Amino acid sequence: MGRAFEFRKGRKMKRWSAMAKAFTRIGKDIVMAVKEGGPNPEANSRLRAVIQNSKAANMPKENVERAIKKATDKDTANYKEVLFEGYAPHGIAILVETATDNNNRTVANVRSYFNKCNGNMGTQGSVEFMFDHTCNFRIPAEGLDPEELELELIDFGAEEVFEDEDGILIYAPFNSFGTIQKELENRNLEILSSGFERIPQITKKLTEAEMADVEKLIEKMEEDDDVMNVYHTMEEA
After folding, report:
1. TACO1/YebC-like second and third domain location, by residue (predicted)?
2. Which residues touch 114 (CB under 8 Å, ≥6 apart)?
3. Where are the alpha helices (DSSP H) in the chain?
4. Which of these, 114, 126, 117, lies nearest to 85 by C-alpha position?
5. Residue 205 in 3-state DSSP?
6. Angle CA(221)–CA(223)–CA(225) in degrees, nearest 5?
7. By CB atoms within 10 Å of each CB, which of 18, 152, 211, 230 scores lowest?
């Protein structure tokens, strides 16, 4: 198996298990998708994907509709995605994806988390190159052979296809998202969920005490409502 499989296996998805946090995240994803391509899911592939994710998270339909309506309000005009970079203690690179309507607030908060946890906020490009920006899709496994599917989807950008207890996962470079989404839809394959991740090219093994130092910073970041994802180069236990 490749790095995407190991990354998925090791990633602590418990951080997104809180229902309220997951709904907040999806709501912001909807706002960003509507701002990018409009409120019609049929004409907006990114919005279509987020709505699929909302179903996978059991988000009520009225919440989705409310988020789409909110996205057309002038109050969300200043919403934008901002990436922050830096280092946690013990030389662990950190990437923080945010969606914010107040960049000054978000910058101040993220910087304070780094400072309080003995980390350092870096400049743009300081650690982003250490991660591969990928897209992923989850589809039902019934009636499909992952190896055959991988061979069929290579021409559309797929790099890794594997099965876990929840279905088949397809990983590809970030810019292959639209191509693979369209091909899966053309094949009438149900997309259970999809998204983007940043997979570290190299990870670093730490002691339990050192891991606790890094986890403290990650947890502070993830408690912030503006933070969508936190990625790191620490080897997961």
Report:
1. 79-234
2. 86, 87, 88, 94, 120, 121, 217
3. 3-10, 19-37, 45-56, 61-71, 103-116, 146-153, 177-186, 208-222
4. 126
5. coil
6. 95
7. 18
Q: Are strands 160-164 and 167-173 parallel, antiparallel or unpaired?
A: antiparallel
Global confidence as pTM: 0.86
pLDDT of residue 165: 86
Q: Give CA–CA dist 205/211, Å, rounded.
A: 9
CATH number for the domain harbouring residue 8: 1.10.10.200
Answer whether residue 184 is part of any domain: no
Phi, psi angles (nearest 5°) of residue 128: -55, -35
Q: Tell me how far apart the alpha carbons of residues 165 and 204 are, in angstroms, rounded to a whole number.
A: 28
pLDDT of 20 reads 62
Classify 194 as helix, strand or coil: strand
In a domain, 24, yes or no: yes
Spatial separation of the C-alpha atoms in residues 94 and 91, rounded to whole Å? 9
Q: What is the pLDDT of residue 1?
A: 63
Nearest Cα neighbor of 203 from 9, 36, 38, 20 is 9
Give the total number of structural domains in the chain: 1
pLDDT along the chain (237 residues), means of 10: 74 52 85 88 91 89 88 72 96 95 95 97 96 96 94 96 92 95 95 93 96 95 91 89
CB atoms within 10 A of CB 105: 12
Only one residue has tokens 């509507």, namely 34
Q: How far apart are CA 229 and CA 237, in angstroms?
A: 19
Q: 15 is in which domain, residue-wise? A: 3-72
